[in-house]
Fold each of these.
Amino acid sequence: MARSDRSVLPGSTAMLVLALLKAREMYGYEIIEELEKRSNQVFQLKEGTLYPILHSLEKEKLVTARDQETPSGRKRRYYHITAAGLQALDAKKEEWQTFSQAVTAILAGA
Amino acid sequence: MARSDRSVLPGSTAMLVLALLKAREMYGYEIIEELEKRSNQVFQLKEGTLYPILHSLEKEKLVTARDQETPSGRKRRYYHITAAGLQALDAKKEEWQTFSQAVTAILAGA
DNA sequence: ATAATATACCTAGATAATCTAGGTATAAGG
DNA sequence: CCTTATACCTAGATTATCTAGGTATATTAT
């Protein structure tokens, strides 16, 4: 994310990526754009952040990857969520809900 | 926070601390307990996390500190939020809202 | 009385998430 | 043809938090 946001919430990027991949398989560059679009410009992932995350998700077998070329010749690496990835997503979503509710509870008093 | 939570949301601890201090001045150990209680055990700050945060908040002049002894002789360091701290809290709260709404938007599809 | 636990503060070094700042290569648009 | 956008990648820096210690005193249990 952009530097200013590091103070707010790192640590859930993998979850966001898995959430997008649940809908359909996507390639890295596309994920960055989609996250930006769907979050109304709030998330602006750097490539240096996303690609390592994709690689580690792949190593954990939460996603699989396949290479494909566009008709014009561009090479893309498509990522597809696995059953384990869907499970991990559910777990992370629950963690997120617990966490954000707790934050809200604390902030309510302020 | 507990290790398992590092994957979810580091980066907002200072905000939570400021939020507590808005209500009343508190000492470090008390902050840890209060955060745990008010968050229903979700936040379990380690001393090694909190004390450095308090020191940096003090250096940024978002809080001031004063030492006080209890009748029984225990030494405590009370922290009090400053005007700048209140301003910073508001800014962080807004950041948080923007961020959590964006996350919710992404997760909604999953 | 004494031992164990809780309170209350602290710091140095490790770990891990993200960013910075590069790099390569090809396609599309001016 | 030159610039910009697309598309992938990595090494090293930065930073938040944790781990794992440390000190000292008060309270509670034996």
Note: Residues 1-9 of chain B have pLDDT under 50 and may be disordered.
Amino acid sequence: MFKVLVVEDDGNLRKLMSAALKQNGYEPFTAEDGEAALDLLEKTSIDIVISDIMMPNMDGYELTTSLRRANFEMPILLVTAKESFEDKQRGFMLGVDDYMVKPIDVNEMILRVGALLRRAKMASEHSLVVGNCVLDYDAQSVRFGAAQAETIPQKEFLLLFKLLSYPNKIFTRRQLLDELWGMESEVDERTVDVHIKRLRERYNSNPNFEIITVRGLGYKAVKLV
Amino acid sequence: MFKVLVVEDDGNLRKLMSAALKQNGYEPFTAEDGEAALDLLEKTSIDIVISDIMMPNMDGYELTTSLRRANFEMPILLVTAKESFEDKQRGFMLGVDDYMVKPIDVNEMILRVGALLRRAKMASEHSLVVGNCVLDYDAQSVRFGAAQAETIPQKEFLLLFKLLSYPNKIFTRRQLLDELWGMESEVDERTVDVHIKRLRERYNSNPNFEIITVRGLGYKAVKLV
DNA sequence: TAGTTTGTTTACATAAAGTTCACAATTAAA
DNA sequence: TTTAATTGTGAACTTTATGTAAACAAACTA
């Protein structure tokens, strides 16, 4: 389910938008202003941001700038009170993807969100999200929240990716060797243990997942979120 | 230079749009209706399509459907006579990326085209700005702030330009060889390393970007601004 | 509880990948 | 034509990843 962050200081409108999103199969999150939004974005992996421009503390433009600067690449849809060319120009320069003019037509909003997500999906396909942790298959990297993505050794990555792709599913060492090392691999089963150990060392204190030993059978990953 | 296809039966409007596009650094192509557009799309690699909805022979919706069915994935921007929700809904369903309502504001059109192209990740201009650093493709030069622009060796320039055109995207050595040296080049992959080394030597202490090695995969550029 | 099985951890050897250097070949400039 | 700049190569070197073996620890079993 796609996570949509609605940033809007008007409580009624916020509720209205949330409701419409929920009704259309999205998972809405809300924030009252840019600062609250940034906080939330650190913790949660939001797929698309819909933000009002005029807000207390931090307005829509500042929010956009902050996000792009922090290398967040999700689509941003700004809501403007008046249809002004200068505003739009400024927004597009900063990295805004689309505009809506108030009063908002929630049906149109749903359509635009869909179009933006569809377009954005093309960009990075092979990725896996667990809480605020994102595994990028192509970059062989792991990122937590807004932190810098870290590329990790291939075997470790594949192992983690496989386990997290099927949370709670138990994999035997043999299965993992067959799938990640190749059927004919002559590698010792203990090798899996060693890589598990390395992964645990790397991500021991993260709050998103844990690799569990299932004695006599193998290993599994569980989500903690 | 980006190729924009304008599909519009009104000759005057077509000219107006073409002119505006050309003036803003795009290469405009035109077609009078959907069928003519399809013909042209077969022959030319168009980056983005702007199409009127109401046209003889094949309208904007049919054109969209045909394109998506043929796996063309460029952004499509439809121009509608009236702002009707049903129309928009239909369009977004079919795979339209954005709408503009007539009468067209050409400035807004340029902005929307820019935003769509940026989102489509095709972004690549004739000059590229990273922080206070400017790469000029035509002059094959790099300039920092107000300093004198410095022309650098071609291979180094192309390499840097390519990497910075898609920040954070990882390129394999093979990809870079194919794209910068040509598909059939017999050059050793190590050669890329050598050029990377030279670039790093040249720009090691600049605060705008950095070339990162992604072990096992290739190289990527990251913006530090 | 002692012994057995299974899983964890460590240190190390080897392989794989990336960097650097000196130089030769090529191209462009003076 | 001479000189300088650019580009590619191969080998030495550095760093990182991976697998093995053995010691250690925990869990099960009789």
Note: Chain A is about 45% helix and 20% strand.
Amino acid sequence: MRKIFLFMDTIFNKVDAKGRVSLPSDYRAIVKELSTEIVCYRSLSAPCIEGCLEDTLDKLATDIENATDFFSETQDNLTNLIFGDARRFAFDSTGRIMLSEKLLKHAQITDAAVFVGKGRKFQIWNPQNWEKEEARIRAEVMKNRPTLKTAKEAE
Amino acid sequence: MRKIFLFMDTIFNKVDAKGRVSLPSDYRAIVKELSTEIVCYRSLSAPCIEGCLEDTLDKLATDIENATDFFSETQDNLTNLIFGDARRFAFDSTGRIMLSEKLLKHAQITDAAVFVGKGRKFQIWNPQNWEKEEARIRAEVMKNRPTLKTAKEAE
DNA sequence: TGGTATAACATGGTAATTTATGGGATTCAA
DNA sequence: TTGAATCCCATAAATTACCATGTTATACCA
């Protein structure tokens, strides 16, 4: 098992009439090291789908257990939403997954999708929506370039 | 992985019609200690490509996780921008990588590139642009020579 | 020190492989 | 038995691995 798992890059893929999408090969390579499935859920903060390895959600669960006093009730509620929403998705022999109606609707995805790497996680966007979102983020980050230090203080 | 490695020197290489460039052999020697790949992304502050080992980004991912919480908006923005842009680049048996259109365009590279060592990272420049940038940096540094002490205080 | 042999490297071209994607067949369940 | 989900096959395009050559740098020897 490799030590490093990072979902990266921005990949545009088609969604066919059956709702099938190819998981980018880079992503598959990562997933295959650990299992045959990814976990997806509706993002709580944006009109997109979030995906990760089950390990990542497991780590989140552990973090909550170890820092119960740190987490507020609202954050606790958020985790409930995530675990209640999340589902495993396996990919077939050609590397495609079939996303659910619920997820596609939330992300407004019909015939094309963009996979955006986020390190331990990734997101799946409607291409037009992502284009706007990327511009927004870039503008915001450039306006006040964060350091890890200020990022922490800003919270 | 070796503990000590530094990307150094400035190396000029050609870029062929397919976007292939030889990674300088010194750089390859460093990369080979750990894997067969480097990670490249568009610099946030200059018209050039930045490259490093995946370890370096993995460390960044961990730092972001530790500095912000799972639901942080800051974390969202940072990870989208950095990991959404980065990509792995493997080199073939002759030591070449194939840079993407996106990266080449950002750095205005067409038929030649300059690799500039930066310690843990390195940059890839359009030769003319680098010539100007190097002159600019040198002039600036000479004008007001920084020390590590003042650099730290300035934060 | 000078000259030559050797190895390493950058670079051009081509073959082989992988990937994304469409379509059809098969299975399963309501 | 109808609709949906899964599996399998085909293909075009993009990516990657491989081979060949000239050039440069290095090592070796007289």
Note: The longest strand of chain B covers residues 112-118.
Amino acid sequence: MQSEEEISNFLKSIETRCFKTTKRSFFKGETITTYLEKRNQLCILLTGEADLIRYDFNGNKTIIGQFSNNSIFGEALYPANTNNELFVLAKTNCDVLFFSYDNLWIKCKQNCSFHKEFSEQINKLIISQVVELNTRIELLTKKNIRDKLLSYFDILSSKKLSKTISIPFTFTDLADYLSVDRSAMTRELSHLIEEGFIEKKGKKITLLYE
Amino acid sequence: MQSEEEISNFLKSIETRCFKTTKRSFFKGETITTYLEKRNQLCILLTGEADLIRYDFNGNKTIIGQFSNNSIFGEALYPANTNNELFVLAKTNCDVLFFSYDNLWIKCKQNCSFHKEFSEQINKLIISQVVELNTRIELLTKKNIRDKLLSYFDILSSKKLSKTISIPFTFTDLADYLSVDRSAMTRELSHLIEEGFIEKKGKKITLLYE
DNA sequence: AAAAATCTGTTGCGTATGCAACAAAAATAT
DNA sequence: ATATTTTTGTTGCATACGCAACAGATTTTT
């Protein structure tokens, strides 16, 4: 498999050929898409960061997904939605590639190599998305905040091959990602420090165990 | 896209051609695979049911995934694992198709139509797996048991287009799926009944609201 | 450089929920 | 048909965690 970067370059170089793709830029704060009756649309985040937000009927806001470089999203990847509304919101300025889900399957008349490669790359992205989702589920199924944090640190640590890691987003967002209350999480972080499990300096965390 | 059934039939009819696939049957209780250094292997459950089980370092067992007809799984779809061991355990007798992840990408010399169709079907399965995973995350990110249950019921209800639904697994398993304590969940179910939100008769639930 | 917005850490309080234990019911195995 | 295992419902207890509120630090905007 190619590197992240190669895939990234391929996606950025795409121009509409045998089927239609659209690129659009969004400013921070704009709504990129809603998950409501666009079942055919797939989106890839080329640059920037975006959140998938749920407002439930009480108006409570939850971040249920966080997207960054090469994240693939869109209603086609979501359960047909019932009660609550889902939005994808640009957290920073973003460039997004849109295309129709069907183009992944429909063979183009010319059987052009571009179309083939495109499908392949998208499928690879989807697979890495599956890994991401499984990672998150792995964390969400831990029964308490401490285990969620430690598992999360472990994952980062084994990715970077280092006991010192840097949290890639704000602690507020981390709490959302782990689906716990922010203040409760901060409390637990303090306990972990007191008990000598970790050291913390801003977003730098050092694991002291093992 | 074809129906579930068509995909199912296609998969069952697979015989090794331009690359190697293996079919094997497992008895209830057998270990189908472990997530440990088989990064290349993908598995599809042709018949039966299986659970993805995590044992953490305390020996605590958690069901972190549940597989049934046409579920696709395998370490390739999982974060490189660090601390705890993952097993896929046959919950009933199972038939499983194994093949190498690489075969999804490598173009076979003959460019045979079988290989093409195979890749396509697998990619569709993976996409439906993404929908499944997103469904679960949607549920896991709800902040309390009541909301988890009601959302779960809603999803089932809108799938079946009926206010009366049938839980497709035991309540013990449902608790695992929602990652809550079983007794706490039963307690919450009782409350929902008392307060007139639902009716319950065994695994049949009727939603009384809206 | 000042003003505004967001992020972070802390704490008190109440409660939702995890845990353990048990008995009855249901399902499965012998 | 009987025995064994699994599932289900219930309840008491303890506590982990969500919530609200606030102040200081940090970042972003103007």
Note: Residues 59 and 193 of chain B are 35 Å apart (CA to CA).
